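Researcher: Sequence recovery benchmark, item below. Answer with residues only.
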């Protein structure tokens, strides 16, 4: 028997929905990885600039601010490198780490109440704003924002970081809650836009696949038609170039089929072909 691989002639008949779902998941991971890499660089720049600014603004804590925010910037750059090599299952956890980094910087800034209040105004919070450009699912986005808001608000109201009066504690907790709501709403709107775009792309792929099947399939028998035969023969001819193998072409002919049509009618002939 010739050693010729004919698997490339197989017509893929697996369910379209599973293929589309897998394609959508892959596209989502690719988009999330790309966003993670870009976002990690942007966050690194913001953290480093913030560290320099707060070090200059509060000289009594200059070393602490600069060191803390520089470490955050370094961690963000490390995420940029990790995002390129990470397997798909680690991409989403890495995006969570990207939001934890600025949240850690906020907690570390509690050594100076003026600095803490200055960088926690509503939607300007990095841990919240990062959610707006990450392609997270609703469950991951909601879980992160709830966890962040509850933990930060409880710590703020209960401890006041040791030097915040009651009014400033409430103000800070309120700012965090407002920012989380803005981040959730913005992420939800963007997610719905992505879902609509994904649904349109899925429908377009389905229609294209249906058109291709109709163009290459005989409507009566469901077998490949002459157009598909020409394509398969061209592929086979190209595959055999430079190969020592051989192949065979088998043609079947139905004897006296015209008599069947004439005596029993074309409906009976169609049924026989089916």
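Model:
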């Amino acid at each position: 028997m010739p050693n010729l691989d004919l698997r490339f002639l197989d017509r893929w008949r697996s369910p379209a929905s599973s293929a589309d779902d897998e394609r959508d998941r892959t596209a989502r991971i690719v988009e999330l990885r790309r966003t993670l890499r870009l976002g990690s660089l942007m966050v690194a720049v913001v953290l480093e600039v913030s560290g320099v600014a707060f070090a200059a603004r509060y000289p009594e804590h200059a070393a602490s601010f600069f060191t803390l925010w520089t470490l955050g910037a370094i961690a963000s750059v490390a995420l940029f490198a990790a995002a390129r090599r990470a397997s798909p299952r680690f991409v989403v956890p890495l995006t969570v780490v990207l939001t934890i980094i600025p949240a850690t910087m906020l907690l570390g800034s509690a050594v100076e109440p003026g600095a803490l209040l200055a960088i926690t105004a509503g939607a300007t919070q990095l841990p919240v704003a990062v959610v707006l450009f990450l392609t997270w699912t609703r469950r991951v986005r909601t879980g992160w924002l709830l966890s962040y808001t509850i933990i930060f608000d409880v710590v703020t109201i209960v401890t006041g970081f040791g030097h915040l009066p009651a009014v400033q504690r409430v103000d800070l907790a309120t700012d965090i809650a407002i920012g989380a709501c803005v981040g959730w709403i913005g992420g939800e709107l963007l997610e719905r836009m992505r879902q609509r775009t994904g649904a349109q792309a899925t429908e377009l792929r389905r229609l294209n696949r249906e058109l291709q099947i109709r163009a290459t399939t005989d409507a009566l028998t469901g077998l490949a038609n002459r157009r598909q035969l020409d394509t398969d023969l061209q592929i086979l001819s190209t595959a055999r170039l430079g190969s020592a193998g051989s192949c065979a072409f088998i043609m079947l002919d139905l004897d006296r089929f015209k008599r069947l049509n004439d005596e029993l009618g074309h409906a009976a002939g169609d049924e026989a072909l089916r």
